[in-house]
Amino acid sequence: MLNGNKASVMRFNGTSWEQVGAAGFSADRVWNTNLAIDGNGTLYVAYGDNGNSGKASVMRFNGTSWEQVGAAGFSAALAQYISLSLDADGRPYVAYEDWILNGKVSVMRFNGTSWEQVGSIGFSASRAENVNLALNADGSPYVAYKDLGNNGKASVMRFNGTGWEQVGSRGVSPDSANYISLTLDSNGTVYVAYEDFANNDKASVMKFAPIVADTDGDGIADNADNCPLIANADQKNTDGDSLGDVCDEDDDNNTVLDAVDNCPLVVNTNQTDTDNDDIGDACDPHNDKVNMPLIYKLLLLK
């Protein structure tokens, strides 16, 4: 065959298709090619590398030619269902069915020098197919796959910084799932599309929205609430710091606590109170009435 089943990439220039670098740029025959582009427009390609016993390899286009990213054939054994994704810093992650552990899922990333394992090797409970990788807004990897230990249903796992954990229940689809695709929106909602055996092999999409806590029940999620333990739906925050007024012990942020501040909502670090009425000059509309009889002060305040 032309170019010996090696990897090639083409792009559409607005009029016609053109080759990106050399045609058939990989060293040997490839399979499961997967393409990604970083924030600078650099192209990356991951594939199963026949010249390296079917292990995973990644190459990138440097503007002139294709070059290897780290070692060729970096996975421990044969890799299939290869999926590639890049984080915000352009670091490539690769997920695949890993035959060092009977076809379970493994994920590796390039640290700038070499490829390293993300969490444990072969972390899925059983053999997986149709592996698909995506990163959330924080760069945390998620993997969806056909779970052969659970009647071929779709399962999703994520890396929590220490280990891999299930997203929702294992086997989320009602029946066997094929051709699985995974993505996440900016809010962290996970979407999975697949060929749905339970619905005559038609397309189905499922989503998993993260559970957002609202401890004080004020309708504001804890991660956005300036007083997560005290209800304050209005989120009033006089001094503009990170705490709402109802839980801020210094509402004007003048280093004098509200309990002893004679102007708790107006900055007055010196606490000057000319007329000695326990209302600081900064917030007392009648601070010039020194020694005025109390009855007149009360009338003026009405």
The quaternary state of the protein chains shown equals: single chain
What proportion strand?
25-35%
Structural class: mainly beta
Order of strands side by side in the largest beta sheet?
3-4-5-6
Determine the fraction of residues in helical runs and give it as a percent range.
under 10%
Biggest sheet, in brief?
4 strands, antiparallel
What is the string of SSEs from the N terminus onward? EEEEEEEEEEEEEEEEEH
Mean pLDDT score, rounded?
89
Count every beta strand, where a strand is a DSSP E run of 2 or more residues: 17
CATH class of the domain at 2-208: Mainly Beta
**Radius of gyration (Å):** 30 Å
Note poorly predicted spans: 289-293, 295-300
Shape: elongated
How many distinct helices?
Answer: 1
Describe this structure in words.
3% of the residues lie in helices and 34% in strands. The chain is mainly beta and 302 residues long. The protein has a domain at 2-208: 6 Propeller (Neuraminidase), CATH 2.120.10.10. A hairpin with a 5-residue loop joins β7 and β8 (92-98).
Task: Record the SSE blueprint.
Blueprint: E1 10-12, E2 17-19, E3 30-37, E4 43-49, E5 55-61, E6 66-68, E7 79-86, E8 92-98, E9 104-110, E10 115-117, E11 128-135, E12 141-147, E13 153-159, E14 164-166, E15 177-184, E16 190-196, E17 202-208, H1 294-301
Features:
mainly beta, 302 residues, elongated, 3% helix, Neuraminidase
Give a quick precis of the structure.
The chain has 1 helix and 17 strands. It has 302 residues and is mainly beta.
